[in-house]
Amino acid sequence: MSAQTVNVGVPPAPKPIGEPDLPERRKRNRLPYLLLAPTLLWLIIFFVVPIFTSVSASVQEGSLDQGYALTWRWANFSDGWSQYNGQFGRSLLFAFLCTVFCLLMGYPLAYFIAFKGGRWKTLLMALVIVPSFTSFLIRTIAWKTILSDNGVVVHVLNDLHVLNFTSAIGFTVGNHVLASPAAVVCGMVYNFLPFTVLPLYTSLEKIDPRLHEAGADLYCSPLTTWRRVTLPLSMPGVVGGTLLTFIPAVGDYVNAQLLGNPNTLVIGQSIEHEFLQDSTGYPLASALSVILMAATLAIVLLYVKKAGTEDLL
Description:
flat
């Protein structure tokens, strides 16, 4: 008869100290999802659903009186592009100029606050943010007074003969700044400048000032130190600031509406017109919105990919 081993009365292995029970582990695993649930629900209702609605409406046909039907009319995209390609290009141009000017103005400002602000850093950053507490419309309308023909700005530019050059390149109209592309870009730069300064300041403020001293000890000029040390370390702020400026600027139409003229129409104004003025324009307006979103997304992805390489420097 073969021998058999029988474990009788052997107690189970003790549970490691501090290890939670299975129900408790499951509860802990569900906790992050429960905390994310309100945010996910918000994104689904106010982001995902509107996008799907816009995409669906962009391939529909009909009118407000007769209703709209999903007919998969892809010609809405070609019609929208053929009618409003000029507005698309103008929106991208204004957004690009706004982003460039905001970066050229915002980087020195953020640099000064981060490294030279001292105990006044908080106050200086507050001064950057405070204008945003005022209504966007009021801030834009204020520029109609600043850039008026009898204002100081226009008089100074005329005395310096700057307007002769800007009019020659089509940036202003004669001796007037108001109701011109220059006025639109000025309003956009003013309104979106804080979106550039804040990420730049956050990135620059994390840089150890002793790195500048190390650069000087290695006989680097201030410009070389900035180019080889400060700029690469501040690139996350540059990328974040430019994206936060370009994305809302490309869809902005308030500045063009209040500070521009019929020759400065942007795609946002065309979308508004199709939505509010034309009873049959819902599909076309949705198609324009989808084209704008797709173009902006493609530009952003290309820029982010480029910003992740040394080619940008």
